[in-house]
Amino acid sequence: MKVILASQSPRRRELLSRIIADFDVVPADINEEVKSYFTPMDYVLTMAAQKAAYIAKQYPDDLVIGSDTIVTIDNEILGKPTSRERAFQMLRQLSGRTHKVYTSVVLMKDDQESSATVPASVEFYDLTDEEINRYLDTNEYVDKAGAYGIQEQGALLVKSIQGDYYAIMGLPIATLYRMLPDFD
């Protein structure tokens, strides 16, 4: 049995390598559009499950790991910014406030499925326009939910966190590690 990570995220690849030495990466091509009828927790779990299911259909004998991460504030899902201007707006919205990050992980093999959603809270410092623009100049915001990555220069925006740091990065490895024995 192979293990397959259904993600193109370099962060997830790096984190998974901390607990599984040998795995393949096969990104799932799914529509990640946020529909208004989704709650944030429903959305993140649905996306992780769709990623896993998409790849599991192609590799039914292997263990497939799907994951998704979202940032929410005021019950609004802040997806990946489509432009620098949108990234600026997102960071302005998060400035001086606490927001939630949810990461779901779904494991699938044959007819077996297991899932978990791990929440965390992140409080940002009050950010000036200059600080936001300096961060945006790093281009780290590209392809990041909520327009920041906590593991790099985005750490300078963060005043405090509560919860699983690795869930904020994109893969709750302690939770995943505890799910794996159910799949031999």
UniProtKB/TrEMBL annotation:
| GO CC field | cytoplasm
Assigned EC number:
3.6.1.9
Cofactor(s) for this protein?
Answer: a divalent metal cation
One annotated GO molecular function: nucleoside triphosphate diphosphatase activity
Under Pfam families, the record lists:
Maf (PF02545)
Reaction equations catalysed = dTTP + H2O = dTMP + diphosphate + H(+); UTP + H2O = UMP + diphosphate + H(+)
Please tell me which top-level EC class this enzyme sits in: hydrolase
Which cell locations does it reside in? Cytoplasm
Residue numbers for the site described as Important for substrate specificity? Answer: R11, T69, Q151
Q: Please give the Gene3D superfamilies that the UniProt record associates with this protein.
A: 3.90.950.10
BP GO terms, sorted: nucleotide metabolic process
Family the UniProt entry places it in: Belongs to the Maf family. YhdE subfamily.
This molecule's function is given as: Nucleoside triphosphate pyrophosphatase that hydrolyzes dTTP and UTP. May have a dual role in cell division arrest and in preventing the incorporation of modified nucleotides into cellular nucleic acids.
Report what the protein is called.
dTTP/UTP pyrophosphatase
Instruction: Record the organism.
Output: Enterococcus moraviensis ATCC BAA-383
Q: What is the lineage of its organism?
A: Bacteria, Bacillati, Bacillota, Bacilli, Lactobacillales
